[in-house]
Amino acid sequence: MTRANRRRAEWLMTAPSVLWLSMFFVIPTAMVFVMAFRVPDPYGGLGKEWGLQTIEALWRGSYGPVLWRTVWMSVLATMACLAMALPVAYWIARLPKSAGRWVLAIIVVPFWTNFLIRIYAWKTVLHIEGPLKQALVTLGVVDPSTSLLFNSGAVIVVLIYNYLPFAILPLYAAAERFDFGLVEAARDLGAGRWRAMASVFLPGISQGLLTAFLVTFIPMLGSYAIPDIVGGTSAEMIGNKIAQRVFSDRNLPLASALAAVLALLMLLPAMGLLWSPRSASRRGGGRGA
Amino acid sequence: MRRSRLPLLAGIGVLLFLYLPMVALVAQSFNASRFGGRWMGFSLKWYARLFENRPIWDALWNSLFVALVGTGVSVVLGTLSGWAMHRYRGGLQRVHHSLVYAPLVVPDVLMGISLLLLFVNSGVPLGLGTISLAHITFCISYVAFVVLGRLQEFDDSVLDAARDLGAGWWTTFWRVVLPMLAPGIASGAVLAFTLSIDDFVITFFVAGPGSTTLPVHVYSMIRHGTPTLINALSGLLMAVTFGLVLLGQRFIRQSR
Amino acid sequence: MDAYFRLDGIRKAFGGHEAVKGVSIDIRRGEVFSLLGPSGCGKTTLLRIAAGLEAPDAGGVFLDGEEITGLPPERRRINTVFQSYALFPHMSVWDNVAFGPRVARRAEAALRPDVGRMLEMVGLAGRAEARPRQLSGGERQRVALARALINRPQVLLLDEPLAALDRKLRQRMLLELDRIHDEVGITFLYVTHDQEEAMSLSDRIAVMNAGRVEQIGTPAEVYERPASRFVAEFIGDTNLMEGVVLDGAAGGVRRLEIPGLGEVLAARGRDSGAGERVLVSVRPEKLHVSRGSLPPGSGRNVIRGRVEDVSYRGAETRYWVRAGALRIAVVEQNARLQHGERPPTWDESVWVGWHADDAFVIGSPAGGETG
Ligand SMILES: Nc1ncnc2c1ncn2[C@@H]1O[C@H](COP(=O)(O)OP(=O)(O)OP(=O)(O)O)[C@@H](O)[C@H]1O
Ligand SMILES: [Mg+2]
Questions:
Q1: Buried b / exposed e across C265-277, counting CB within 10 Å, b at 16+?
Q2: pLDDT, tens digit (0-9, with 9 covering 90-100), for B210-238
Q3: How many angstroms separate the CA of residue B72 from the nearest CA in chain A?
């Protein structure tokens, strides 16, 4: 096959997805930034004129606390996810192969049920008359009048619940490739159990840790349905603000300005993602995610 | 060297954590109580109510329509894309790869609002059409990477072998490439279908009047409806998904 | 000696890296011709050019007097047994073998007996329904062979077909390949980095190094008369001694001065003038070691040394003898030992001798690009 032919075949196969994603992903994402400079239409939607009104509204709207809450809740929930996923990934990786596959399947199966129903299940559990509340009241841990729902605690628990498997899968993938002989070697050389874990196992699965962090943290930043269903006004995240601007006051420019802020927020860890494969190959480490 | 018990305990703890809410929800769906909560005896009446509820069935129909369109188109585009990423190297493919990768890391809210802006700006009426366009967009990347993953398990020399044995490009494609890719394409399609049926956030942003999908309907039930019906719906959906997962497992085992 | 399959001045570069640097080979009809060389020397690249899977940057491919350089692989009557076998994983053994005839639009009824006969020939008649991944390495190799041979190619290319097999199986498959070659009489172009394979199977061998052909000859020729230092070292073991030519009678026995060893005689190899610095190669099995003195006879070189290492290997014993700055390897057949005779052992002083006919002059120590 001649070089020109090969080139044409490559274009034929690449063009459809590239064109589609340019049209429905790149252009819309760019619009998020551009539309922040439109003025809102008083009747809802996008105004015709350009101006800085929306940016001013963004300042005046005091979104600072929401932004801050979005970040700290996501960080907390991500850390909790990693802390729970790490021993589980380790456990599965050390099981016999077939048993490990079964456990993995059992972990993933609940996630084939609808996303909203997984959230709603927690509403049932945390409900004022739900099983958890009743148990805690019986044990005398909480007062009958406290609500387990509609606070940042509930949001964090449900965030953890929904993203835990996404943390377990990459950690397991990394742990499964890990040579556990190294841990034995470290202990043979006198390292205690925890020391061996920290100095051999964790560095060995660092690529998996990074992936697990990113695939939980970034979507958490953009959470909308979870705080909307189990959080109250005191636990709103930036996703809720975007949705409110779209659905209650139809202020699309302000919504896109907020979305632009969210995009910039998640760009920080996304940089890490772009940077990581290169840094990994420099260390001669594992493969990218 | 004694193994630590911590990983085992953590594993069991996590499994309980993952399953308890589901169990609680299913239990509630058989609770005769009108408001949920306290146990008032076993009943199937909420399930019976479910079947009389027209809007749920309409929403299900919409969801299936969107999922079929979304899966169909994204499978074709995604397969081509995965194939191109596997087959070629160079600048174009680096751009292509980043472009296909990016939608996987962008949060749903962002994708939803950006697509809404596109549609509003270009005057496209919101409805099942815009939902389908959105679903195709986020499914392409998943299909492409599933297909790419499959391709990486192949020995590419079979393509040379086919040509060496006298097959032209077209024959090679139909007789070798496509049959070898079929399992990958099938898993990509299953994934796309599942993601499409499950999507709420993006759909919510680009839905219009009369285009309520099942997740959007579930959302409005959660917000405004009676808990009993949602409990029953959840129970039913869980039964269906678990059934499908089991069926899929058996199918996979047989085809091995 | 007419060429049936000819590669003429083939060059191929990938990016900036030249994988094949001007290779010309003439292969006769019905011959088994081997390309032998270390990993990465361009064997596969050359084979892929022969098959039409890769286009050469320069040079031509000729088959039976016709130029086929530009012909796509599907239109060449050349088939390949790939290094990784490249069996179609989604097809049964039968369908794999039937692939070629089916693509050529032969009727199902007509191709059935052919496929059956091929499977019989490679001893897989009972496994027609199996999938490639259910087969052992040796069986896969046979399927690949049958799948290529059924098309009655004019030339069969084999890319390290035995590399993935264990030693025992490899030896059995070598005999098998030999038998099949006799049966079908097709020209084989066989690629390997294993000298034993090449030696036992081929009519002729081209020894390749870094994209070039170093020597073409029969197995005995390349072994007994290596054309370069690379060939001498790559094929079998050898002792290389650096020295200066004292008198270089063309074609006759040359006298050389090896520093630390004294004067030695070499009867073969490159012509070289007096005063020239050269390398002399002697194969270990051509050397003899003895505790008693080996009298300097006609053409016999004898030197004195001390045994540094002895390793007993069953059929033979290998000695390393220190003589001056040189460490000389010697292989003695144990069968040659007289009953009751005690072989030399470690740290004993010994004589090492060889015949001038077994010593080769192979060029200057700087050795050009082959060093
Ligand atoms: N498609 C390619 N792109 C870039 N470089 C290549 C390509 N094919 C081969 N090369 C390079 O050309 C050189 C020769 O490769 P080739 O595969 O012909 O070696 P070989 O002799 O068959 O080795 P082996 O015994 O390991 O199979 C190597 O350095 C290889 O890296
Ligand atoms: Mg090779």
A1: bbbbbbebeeebe
A2: 899 999 999 999 888 777 888 888 888 88
A3: 14
- Indicate the DSSP class of residue C225: S
Nearest Cα residue in chain A from B223 = A229
pLDDT for residue A273? 59
User: Given the CA of residue C191, which atom of ligand 1 is nearest to it?
Assistant: 22
Within 13 Å and on the Cβ side, how many CA atoms surround B28? Answer: 31
> Which domain range does residue C256 map to?
237-363
Residue B24 contacts residue A124 (beta carbons within 8 Å): yes
Question: How does pLDDT run across B144-169, given as a tens digit for each residue?
Answer: 999 999 888 888 889 999 999 999 88
CA distance C29 to chain B (A): 21
Q: Is the pLDDT of residue A173 over 60?
A: yes
Residue C36 near residue C207, CB atoms below 8 Å? yes
- Domain stop point among C227, C261, C283: C227
Chain B residues closer than 8 Å to C103 by CB: 162, 165-167, 171, 175
B116: left (phi over 0), alpha (psi -120 to 50) or beta: alpha
Domain assignment present for C232: no
Return d(Cα B89, Cα B69) in angstroms, integer.
31
ipTM at complex level: 0.90
Please answer yes or no on whether B105 and A29 come within 8 Å at the CB atom: no
Classify each residue of B236-249 as buried b or exposed e, where b means 16 or more C-beta atoms within 10 Å of its C-beta.
Answer: bbbeebeeeeeeee
Contact C86 B179 (CB under 8 A): no
Closest CA to C189 of C9, C70, C48, C10: C48
A50 within some domain: no
**Of C227, C245, C266, which residue sits at a domain end?**
C227
State mean pLDDT over B92-116.
Answer: 93
Whole-number Å distance between alpha carbons of C252 and C263: 16
- Cβ <8 Å between B166 and C147: no
Q: What is the CATH classification number for the domain harbouring A81?
A: 1.10.3720.10
